[in-house]
Protein: Efflux transporter outer membrane subunit
Organism: Rahnella woolbedingensis
Amino acid sequence: MYCLKRVNKVKPMAALYCVLLVACAPMKDDISTVKPIQQQQIVLPKEVKLTSQQWPNSTWWKNYNDPQLNALIDRALKQSPSIALAHARVAKSRSDVTLIESGTQLKVNAMAEINAAHVSSNGYLGPFAKDRPVLGTTGPWYTEGIVGLGATLDIDLWGEHRDRLDAVIGVENAHRLEQKAVELEISADVAQLYYGIQTTDQVTLRLEALKQSETFVLNSHQARAAQGLESSADAEMAQAMLLSIRQQLLMAKQQRVAFRESLRALTGGGELADIKSAPLPVAQTQLPSSLNYQLLARRPDLQAAHWYVQSSMKQIDAANAAFYPTFDIKAFFGFDALHLDDLFNHSSQQANIIPGLYLPIFSGGQLEANLDKSRHQRDILISQYNQAVLTAVKDVVTTGSALQSLQEEQLLQNEKVSSAAAGMNNAKARYHRGLISEAMAHEAQRQWLSEQIKQIEMQGQIVSQDIVLNKALGGGKI
């Protein structure tokens, strides 16, 4: 009896609230062990030589001091279809934010309705099916009219809408950073193709000179063989060398066409002005003094992946909140009458205020499946983020190491070019004194030209690696 009295003293609304919470659909615990990689876990090998070099700026390509390159990259960043696609994705994500943001705003609709209905004599409105003017029934036909304003307001008790809003904002931030990543990718690709053309043009000039020199050597060997002064073997070797040079020229010309068409596609198509010859720049990019958290902050692709993870966590919060009751308020004010003649009479005014509470008890597994899906999606995105971080560190280390090795090789190649030039000058001097034939002097020139071609190709590789390193470091501040 005492217990019954205690229960009777409990306020009805509080009791109902407790019952509703207890009756909520059960949710499973999160047992995932997948965690985002931390900055202290970014460990670089000891052999990597870090310097005090500053990070690249946002327009890193301008350090090459090449107006043609600057113009091409500016054009690509304005006209490339990839940039247009990235802008469209950002705009769409902004619309998604606005759409979710409107979920908890007050919505008001004007409504007008005419309902011509025949009332059944055997239904629950059966008395209205008869024509009884005294009682106000003129059945069985009625033309009902409704005119008024309806309003709905969703109350975000558990933050479900707020979490969904934060999730789509996270996606919007990711798309903005992906746009930066696309811009970095395009600028790096344009620079690679541009200097690929410049390298090919310089190699082609040396190959043309080498072809002329080799043609003279071939003619000389053929003349000596025709006079019986030497066997035809030397002429055949010279012929094979000349064919190899011609083959290299054909490949260089085809490669230039491929570079140019790729560059034209990146810059939005249309006419592309002739690219004038320009010297290859000296690579200046080096590894900064530290990489860990700064690399995570400067790489737009890593920042985008981070925002996708944050968004997925907010999706989980929203999925959790869906297990709890939802509350809304609906209202109506207007006129409602069974006869259109009476619609705008004062007595036809109608006002409704309808608070509503909705409790998920049995969802058929839908809420649980949605929560599991959100958690698995988070685990996928965290794993992708972790892999992207490790790949970014690998890219920086391997590119920086390759650039250092190429620069060391370049010093040796420069010495080889100098030695070949000294040998060529010596051969020319000996030829002018009549000590050797002109063909032997041309063979010395051929050696010098061959080493020059290797030097140019190596310088092109260094510039290419320098561009890749700028890209791997994130291309400057976001």
